[in-house]
Amino acid sequence: MPRLLEIMRRLRDPQSGCPWDIEQTFQTIAPYTIEEAYEVADAIARNDWSELEGELGDLLLQTVYHTQIGAESGHFTFDSVANAISDKMVARHPHVFGDESRDKSADQQTADWEKIKAAERAKKAQAGTLDGVALNLPALLRAVKLQKRAARVGFDWPSTDEVLDKLQEETRELVEARDNKSKTDMLDEFGDLLFVMANLARHMDIDPEEALRSTNAKFTARFEAVERKLSDMGKRPEDSDLKEMDALWDAVKAEARICPD
């Protein structure tokens, strides 16, 4: 760790460092931080542990980068960041580092965790129920987090039945906006529909990001299978038409049901 911190310090040295690294700011580095986090998740999804090692290093570099900029501007240092997260983890696990009992159910542990986080938000003067939900989260993830916060104070439908009713309502409103050819209304109603879908996922204990990633992977595999079938026929997708490709798609789905592996 000291070696990596020294490398970053030298890269940012105004006199002898790398011109590109010297020019970077919190704002310019932030997109790379997000990208590296996704690449870590991708390596995990592919069970590529060698790749994961490298990606974790890339993600660690992002923390080092931000803390070096923070140190230069007098905001914080790597040590202060490490100490802050250490203090937070100890405070949030009194059943491990304190005198509370470890004999708790998963639900009780989750409830206790939320109480501790609520107390932390109160100390930060985050009085509103939705305060502290990061603005730059992926929109679908942020929708789920906003809904979870609202549910804590009782603003929630009691079951999936009401959510499904709302889903039908929002679908009808989107159709009306489409028929009226109002781009603004379509954007608004489409957002409402996605928001309700995120709520449905929460009620069904489904991670919407995971569900969509799975469907993306399934679509990719099936479409590539359609392309292979077309190639066997001496064709490319642009040489085919929707009717033919749809028939091949159905064939690929049927084959998958017969041989799911």
Question: What does this molecule look like?
Answer:
The protein is an all-alpha fold. It has three domains: 2-92, MazG-like (Helix Hairpins, Orthogonal Bundle), CATH 1.10.287; 128-206, Orthogonal Bundle (Helix Hairpins); 210-258, no CATH class. The protein contains twelve helices and no strands. The protein has helices spanning 2-11, 19-23, 26-45, 49-72, 78-92, 94-97, 106-123, 139-152, 160-179, 183-203, 208-232, 242-258.
Summarize the structure.
With 261 residues, this protein is mainly α. It is built from twelve helices and no strands.
Count of discrete alpha- or pi-helical segments spanning 4 or more residues: 12
- Per the CATH scheme, the topology name of the largest domain is Helix Hairpins
The overall pLDDT average reads: 91
User: What portion of residues is helical?
Assistant: over 70%
Query: Under the CATH scheme, which architecture of the largest domain would be assigned?
Result: Orthogonal Bundle
The number of distinct β-strands equals 0
* Gross morphology: extended
- CATH superfamily of the largest domain, by name, is MazG-like
GO molecular function: ATP diphosphatase activity
Catalytic activity: ATP + H2O = AMP + diphosphate + H(+)
Pfam family, one: MazG
Protein name: Nucleoside triphosphate pyrophosphohydrolase
Topology:
Layout: H1 2-11, H2 19-23, H3 26-45, H4 49-72, H5 78-92, H6 94-97, H7 106-123, H8 139-152, H9 160-179, H10 183-203, H11 208-232, H12 242-258
Helix pairs in contact: 1-4, 3-4, 8-10, 9-10, 11-12
Domain NTP pyrophosphohydrolase MazG-like: 24-97, 163-224
GO molecular function, one term: ATP diphosphatase activity
GO biological process, one term: UTP catabolic process
